[in-house]
Amino acid sequence: MEGDRRTSPPTQSLLPDGHLVLWTLCSVLLPVFITFWCSLQRSRRQLHRRDIFRKSKHGWRDTDLFSHPTYCCVCAQHILQGAFCDCCGLRVDEGCLKRADKRFPCKEIMLKNDSRAADAMPHHWIRGNVPLCSYCVVCKQQCGSQPKLCDYRCIWCQKTVHDECMKSSLKNEKCDFGEFKNLIIPPGYLTSINQMRKTKKTDYEALASKFGKQWTPLIILANSRSGTNMGEGLLGEFRILLNPVQVFDVTKTPPIKALQLCTLLPYRSVRVLVCGGDGTVGWVLDAVDEMKIKGQEKYIPQVAVLPLGTGNDLSNTLGWGTGYAGEIPVAQVLRNVMEADGIKLDRWKVQVTNKGYYNLRKPKEFTMNNYFSIGPDALMALNFHAHREKAPSLFSSRILNKVCGIK
Ligand SMILES: [Zn+2]
Ligand SMILES: [Zn+2]
Ligand SMILES: [Zn+2]
Ligand SMILES: [Zn+2]
């Protein structure tokens, strides 16, 4: 009897135990399933977005948080995250991306319509998200100050105008390319060059004379890996202010290829702005030397530097500063380049040969920039260089490198 009593409780507790197992399984598996399903949906959305990015003529980039109050260019809603085009500046939320892509054209780097004259191009207005502190070209009052999608900006000349001040005459007005017209390569110019190349004409001087002697087109060669990836953001800012065709990422297009654009521009007119450290500047200067060897001496550009890397000794000596971390706006950098005077840099090709009896080793060739620097700067650079040579892996961060330099 006693034995029967002892065996009965387990049969009664089987059911609650089963429930417990079921509930435990549910509480463990359900969150796992939900997380898995969410990540599947997210990756599917990402794939879809990347597909649109790849096919699009805009230079779309994702962002988790816009730095300024932003409104979607399609649905006009206030948005915190979404995508922006780093050529024309359109901003959109994820849901409206496809519609924005179809509805709005991006900056035309070359005119499609050949009948238009090379120097006559109307403004290209886009609505909303005009920069803070911009002023209307018509009434001279502040623009874009209302918390909604309002007012227009021309993506070439950067002029802004109120919704109510926008007239049809302004819509058809010729764009003068604004403040940086002397640095921008107009799309019409490239269309004319293209037509001339078809007829095998290479006298671009007459064509360029329309833009005047002060036209010194600028080519941007930025290293997107320099300055803890600051180069990436800078590339976008330059594309917004200039023609995207004149902005290159040297990690994707090597300087020697990018500099071939100089051969389509008037002789001795081009300026190049190198955004990177001494290494990138050296790379570009080597490419300039190569142009000389190729017999393209008359196309050689003047080189300016925006120091982004760690070693910016050459840039400092040339008067471009020791490092750029966004202290001045990109527009001011362009103004500095416009106002800069050119100087000649003493460059040497050094050949090291083995003088031994059995001269089997190939002679080594180096390029040397000869400049003079004295005082604590030079000492610091020398000490830093010596330390980096000993342990290169310890000097991969720019901020850390600066701290070591101060020490
Ligand atoms: Zn939207
Ligand atoms: Zn665009
Ligand atoms: Zn314009
Ligand atoms: Zn106005």
TrEMBL record:
It catalyses: a 1,2-diacyl-sn-glycerol + ATP = a 1,2-diacyl-sn-glycero-3-phosphate + ADP + H(+); 1,2-di-(9Z-octadecenoyl)-sn-glycerol + ATP = 1,2-di-(9Z-octadecenoyl)-sn-glycero-3-phosphate + ADP + H(+). GO terms for cellular component: membrane. It comes from the Eukaryota. Pathway: Glycerolipid metabolism; Lipid metabolism; glycerolipid metabolism. The chain crosses the membrane at residues 20-40. One of its GO terms (molecular function) is zinc ion binding. Residues 213-354 form the DAGKc domain. GO terms for biological process: lipid metabolic process; phospholipase C-activating G protein-coupled receptor signaling pathway. Its EC number is 2.7.1.107. Residues 57-106, 122-175 form the Phorbol-ester/DAG-type domain. Keywords: ATP-binding, Kinase, Lipid metabolism, Membrane, Metal-binding, Nucleotide-binding, Repeat, Transferase, Transmembrane, Transmembrane helix, Zinc, Zinc-finger. The keyword Transmembrane helix applies. CDD domains: C1_DGKepsilon_typeIII_rpt1, C1_DGKepsilon_typeIII_rpt2. InterPro entries: ATP-NAD_kinase_N (IPR017438), C1-like_sf (IPR046349), DGK (IPR037607), Diacylglycerol_kin_accessory (IPR000756), Diacylglycerol_kinase_cat_dom (IPR001206), NAD/diacylglycerol_kinase_sf (IPR016064), PKC_DAG/PE (IPR002219). Belongs to the eukaryotic diacylglycerol kinase family. This is diacylglycerol kinase (ATP). It comes from Phodopus roborovskii (Roborovski's desert hamster).
